[in-house]
Each structure stands twice: as C-alpha cells, then as structure tokens.
Amino acid sequence: MKTPEELVRPEILALSAYAVADSEGMVKLDAMELPYALPEALRARLAERLSRCELHRYPDPTGRRLRAQLAQRMRVPPGMSVMLGNGSDDLIQIVTFTLARPGAVMLVPEPTFVIYRTNATLAGMRYAGVPLRADFSFDREAFLAALRELRPALVFLAYPNNPTGTLYPAADVEAVIRAAEGLVVLDEAYHAYAGASFMARLAEFPNLAVMRTVSKLGLAGIRLGYLAAHPRWIEQFDKVRQVYNVNVLTQTAAEFALEHLSVFEAQAAQVLAEREPLAQALAALAGVTVFPSAANFLLVRVPDAARVHAELRRRGVLVRSFHGAHPLLENCLRITVGTPQENRILLDALRACL
Ligand SMILES: *Cc1c(COP(=O)(O)O)cnc(C)c1O
pTM, whole model, 2 decimals? Predict the structure, then answer.
C-alpha cells in the first residue's frame, strides 16, 4: 500500500494548511472582523426569519432573490450579473479553476492575499508576483511590463490590498485593466472602509469583475461573497460553482442584513473613525512605522516582530505577524482596528513590550 505522501500531488504536499490561531479569551485583532456583534434588537427578528427557512429543501441554487437585492443595494450597473460564493474564498477558487487552461498565468502584485496563490497551485495554474515598492505603493511600470511579458489569463488586485492596506491609484488600476488581455478581478473585500470602488464603472470594461464579501462588514460567520461581472463571464463561472454553494441560512441572513444595511454601515463607520487615531498613536511609539491604510487594519513595522507578536499574545492580544511571509514584510505585523477599548488595550500592551 502506498503512503499518503506517495499518493498526494507534490504541489499539495509542499503547501501548508492556512493557519488560524486559537483566539479563546483574546483581544482578537488578527482577522479584520468587525469588532461589534449584531445589535440585540435585531437578534430576535433574525432568529424569527431563520426559523422559517425550509431546511428540508435545497436552497435556491443561484440565490436569485439575494442576488437581486445585492445588485440593487450595492449599485451593480444594469446589464451586469452577480454570482454568490461561500465567502469570496469560494469565488476566488471558482474563477481560478475556470481560467486555468494549461500554461495559463495568474499575475498579482506582491505581497498580497495568499489565497490567490494557493488556488493557482491547486488549479495547476502558473503563478507570478510583481513586487510592490518598498513602501508598498504600486509599481505601475513593472506591473505593465509583466502583463506584456506573461500575458496572464487572470489578474487579482486586492483594492485595497491585504496585508498592506494600500489603495492603488485608480489610474493605475485602470491602466492594468486596459492593458490586460485576461480577466482582472478587483477584490473589494474592504470596500466599506476604502471610499473607492470600481463597481460603478464595471460596464466600461469587458474584462473586469468586482468581487466583494460581507465578512469585513460584520458577517464573517455566515460566509458570503459576491462577484459582479458581465453575464458572459458569470455564465462560465456558474458551471464550476458547486450547485448549492450558498446555504439557505446564509441566504436568509444576508437578505435580512441587507434590509438593515445602515446598521452594519454605522458600525463600520465607527471602526473607520478609529483608524487614524490608532495609526497616529502607533506611529508615536518609538521604533514603530505605520503604513497608510484604506482598510480596517494597519500594517506596522516593529524592531522585532517575532518577539513583539509573542509578547502581545502573552498579554492577551492577538495580531497577525507577516515576518517571513515575503521579503518586503520583514518585521511587519497586521493589526485589525478594534473597538476604542480594544485599541487602548493593544496600545498599552505594545508600549509595555517595545
Ligand atoms: C478577507 C479577505 C477575503 C476573504 O473573504 P471571505 O469572504 O471571508 O472569504 C478575500 N480577499 C481579501 C483581500 C481579503 O482580505
């Protein structure tokens, strides 16, 4: 009998599973979740709504009602289609598997969201990264040169980028979309915090898809992402999507959330109001560099990230270390913006261990 190591595809053997730290009892500032739970007043109403779900039936396979509601509330331009995913992670996988023809290339700026690369590997797609500049700004000339050389079938631009927080200039994004012969997916996971989006311009570009998630807006637990693009793209992606990829509880909870969108937006606005004060307080600490962010997190460089990360953890604060993940991220920590109280705890802990 052969061992798993002999049978498993070598590129999968070489991967490591996505690590999620144990956060029991911690101040959790590692995963860009909204720090506010669903308000008490809405809980009973949501429970009532969920209790009416037909759990004995399969869900609507494409989530027609939810898609229509999303298209309206998120101002998807007329004539464009929306596809739902079990989180945007699911959508990244669907798009990648659909375009992974033999020899096809995925191109991304680096450092960025690692799930793009994981999916390229799983789909057998060639992967290439173009480094951002040392200050994490977009290197337009280098990226356009790579586009010409590699002619990727698929480009992912996280807008703003994770883990750097960078919002690339709209003119650079537009130049990439115009120069690309393949599909450009703008990953707008942080749109609620960014104050910028290409959604309104979607119909201008036949090779653009805009992807979003409700995860960073207070609903990470329900797992829902959506992708808006020209119907010709969605028609193909729909063949790769698992038929019932978004369950009925998620569809119902998301419909409920969209009816109360202003509640979630108000909570996001509270987080956004904390971002600059936190950035300034962090920058005032000796030895700490804070990079500009258009998302609900801040990337910082500290003198010794491994030690600071462990020290913070010992003091009950969980942040994410990116030291070792990419050469440009040396000694970098990513800190989710929390409640005012959580941010104070973080600052006190950081002051104590620097
Ligand atoms: C968090 C994040 C996602 C994942 O979203 P889910 O909907 O929770 O799967 C996708 N893209 C980027 C850039 C992210 O930071």
Answer: 0.97
